[in-house]
Amino acid sequence: MVEQAKHQSNGTYQNLYDESIRNPKGFWARQADLIHWQKPFEKVLDDSKPPFADWYVGGETNLCYNAVDRHLDQLGDKPALIYVSTEVNQEKVYTFRQLHQEVQIAAAMLQKMGVKKGDRVLIYMPMIPEATFAMLACARIGAIHSVVFGGFASHSLASRIEDAKPKVIVSADAGSRAGKAVAYKPLLDEAIARSSYKPGHVLMVNRGLVPFDTVKGRDHDYAALRKELATAKVPVTWLEATDTSYILYTSGTTGKPKGVQRDVGGYAVALAASMKYIFMGEKGKTFFATSDIGWVVGHSYIIYGPLIAGMATVMYEGLPIRPDAGIWWKIVQDHKVSVLFSAPTAVRVLKKQDPAYLSKYDLSSLKALFLAGEPLDETTSDWISGAIGKPIVDNYWQTETGWPILAIQRGVEEMPGKLGSPGVPVFGFNVNVLNEDTAQPCRTNEKGVVAIEGPLPPGCMQTVWGDDERFVKTYWSSFKTRQVYSTFDWGIRDEDGYFFILGRTDDVINVAGHRLGTREIEESISSHPAVAEVAVVGVADQVKGQVAVAFAILKSADAVNETQAKTLEAEIMKVVDSQLGAVARPARVYFVNVLPKTRSGKLLRRSIQAVCEGRDPGDMTTIEDPTALAQIKNAMA
Ligand code: PRX
Predict the structure, then answer these.
(1) What distance in angstroms lies between residue 499's CA and the mean position of ligand 1's atoms?
(2) Are 631 and 607 in contact (CB under 8 A)?
(3) Does the beta carbon of 297 lie inside 6 Å of ligand 1?
(4) Are 343 and 513 in contact (CB under 8 A)?
(5) Cα(396) to centroid of ligand 1, in Å?
(6) CA atoms lying within 13 Å on the CB side of residue 442
(7) What is the rounded distance in angstroms from the CA atom of residue 128 to the CA atom of residue 81?
(8) Gyration radius of the chain over CA positions
(9) What is the dihedral of CA 122, 281, 85, 393, to 10 degrees?
């Protein structure tokens, strides 16, 4: 496999990659120099208990120190955090020195509430500077943060509170979307009420957007504490490289989200290496990732990656087309952004706008646009590269890996890209395409399951929070004959070693780059009193990549007329909105009498999806009731 990419590389990428696979310990020992170690590690890698991999055993470091303190001498008065909000029309720039102080204040607040090393802090916040302070403050004192996307509602939040058991929750009165305030506090209060575990303290940033109720003794005001602790000095807590830095929940096959658990040292090194070899990060320049801190891209490339590399990072609260479709490019011009990172969906949204916005601003500082999170189609890729005249770098990875698995590593070598392909394996990732049944490598251009040989490189998940068994079972047990990490994606590798990703093998769908589990949505819809059974599938959508579509069977056998169906559909959407959040709301809910299932009762989601997309549903010999698919077809028509 390593052989196959050769003729596309002038040797530079190939040599680096080969070394990383042949001699991972040597390779990663060298990369470790990219960060500060308070105490050197004794062992680069302990993989004595596969599939677990402990990187940099015995070493001591700290993510916050590497992201902030380390740069004070050289970059103290240079921008570190650039907050731009087109929601509340605000712009604030924090230098590394100012960020250092704000983080210490936030750390002092957490300490005042009794937070110690290893305690969890849940962060449920919009894209505001205090969210960054809170994350870095946790990292500083060794608390484990768990950021929950602000678009999630009370059920999603409650299950995460229950699982992470945070001592403190940091939140805000509201987020804002398209200029409209979206209240957070009532959802948070409801989630806490729902959860059997109760956090001791809630730290509230009051943006003055939505009035909220305060629970005496539990809720604290961020601004008041900030005043009180304005000059706080909180030293860095040195952590074992293998200590846990954070938990980030993600969807999978079951309705119960998994807490992806990450370490400290391996993550710091992996991000530093990715900034250098993939993102072409340069100290003193500006990085702009348009994601949200609630997602893995936000963790790795809004907060830790750019700051570790000594770059200023843009935290943007707003939409890509408001006040107009020029906003990103204006930010690029105003803050001399050198690296822009976004998702294909957002680009497809821009494509529908006036192209004049793309030539209105000076983009000379920009080196490349990185896109990840979902397949990048050729038309979108072609369009945006033509419009901005910059390289477009597709990169493929997951919450679990924390940083790219496949990409053209332009910081190593400007290898040619191929339309529709995220490129070749990134150093450290021994990626393969395996036959689903035999676990043998597929032939060139043959479809199979994308898998990675263990040990995974630094930065990847350590385990599932509180559930080692689930980690092994979920990620390392797809094949009976051998233990490899399955990414749950279908893919092919071509004759030049380039990979193409063809979608998930499990029940995860990807809506506008947001990863959602169909099981979670089904469970939510099932809680509507009229619903007996439901199937949710992802259906291809021109802008969002996929949208969720639901097929429900009602408890009552009476037929529903069109008006009743409309009312029920709206009610069901409301249920999903209030439990999971609008991100998970299905685009349509159709009512049927029977769902396509196998004789053993397994929902044939993939066949439903195929019918919805006008494709052949495949082998239907195991279907229990052949009329079920006809009902799906009729409903869609
Ligand atoms: O199916 C793949 C898809 O997104 C999944 C991971 O989603 P998430 O955990 O949210 O992490 C996103 C990190 C960027 C993958 O299993 N995916 C991600 N990037 C790509 C992609 N599919 C195709 N092309 C990509 N570049």
Answers:
(1) 13
(2) no
(3) yes
(4) yes
(5) 6
(6) 23
(7) 11
(8) 24
(9) -100
Query: In this predicted structure, what is the pLDDT of residue 7?
Result: 58
Length of the chain equals 637
Identify the CA nearest to 399 among candidates 263, 561, 204, 250: 250
| Exposure string over 48-58, b if 16+ CB within 10 A, otherwise e | eeebbbbbbee
Kindly state if the Cβ of 204 falls inside 6 Å of ligand 1: no
The one-letter code for the residue type at 446 is: E
User: Among 91-105, 430-444, 590-604, which stretch is predicted with the lowest mean pLDDT?
Assistant: 590-604
- Sorted by sequence, the CB contacts under 8 Å of residue 333 that are 6+ apart come out as 361, 362, 363, 365
DSSP secondary structure, 223-243, as one string: HHHHHHTTT---PPPPEETTS
Provide the CATH number for the domain around residue 526.
3.30.300.30
Strands 90-95 and 168-172: what pairing?
unpaired
One-letter amino acid at 451 equals: A
User: From the CA of 562, how far away is ligand 1's center (Å)?
Assistant: 38
pLDDT mean across residues, the chain: 95
For residues 511 and 368, give the distance between their C-alpha atoms in angstroms, rounded to a whole number. Answer: 24
Task: Measure CA 131 to chain center.
Answer: 16
Task: Name the percent of the chain lying above pLDDT 90.
Answer: 88
| Domain count across the chain | 1
Asked if residue 296 has its Cβ within 6 Å of ligand 1, the reply is yes
Ligand 1 atom nearest 395 alpha carbon: 26
Cβ 394 under 6 angstroms from ligand 1: yes
Q: Is the CB of 250 under 6 A from ligand 1?
A: yes
Residue 390 lies in a domain: no
Tokens of 580: 């999971």
Note the pLDDT of residue 3: 46
- Give the mean pLDDT of 71-91: 98
Q: DSSP of 175-239, one letter per residue?
A: EEETTEEEE-HHHHHHHHHH-SS--SEEEEE--SSS-----TTTEEEHHHHHHHTTT---PPPPE
Atom index in ligand 1 nearest the CA of residue 399 equals: 9
State in Å: Cα 272 to ligand 1 middle.
Answer: 21
Q: Is residue 616 part of a domain?
A: yes
Q: For 424-438, write each residue's pLDDT tens digit.
A: 999 999 999 999 999
In tens, the pLDDT along 367-394 reads 999 999 999 988 999 999 999 999 999 9
Residue 541 domain-assigned (yes or no): yes
Task: Tell which atom from ligand 1 comes closest to the C-alpha of 371.
Answer: 26
In a domain? residue 229 = no
Report the pLDDT value the prediction gives residue 6, as an integer from 0 to 100: 55
**Tens digits of per-residue pLDDT, 490-504?**
999 999 999 999 988
Residue owning the nearest CA to atom 11 of ligand 1? 398
Distance 90 CA to ligand 1 centre (A): 32
Of 293, 341, 397, the residue with max ligand 1 atoms within 8 A of its CB, to mutate for a pocket test, comes to 397
- Ligand 1 centroid, distance to 426 Cα (angstroms): 15
Q: Which of 292, 433, 515, 518 to mutate to test the pocket of ligand 1 (most atoms within 8 A of CB)?
A: 515
Q: Is 13 in the pocket of ligand 1 (CB under 6 A)?
A: no
Structural domain containing residue 561: 512-636
Stated pTM of the model: 0.94
pLDDT at 392 (0 to 100): 96
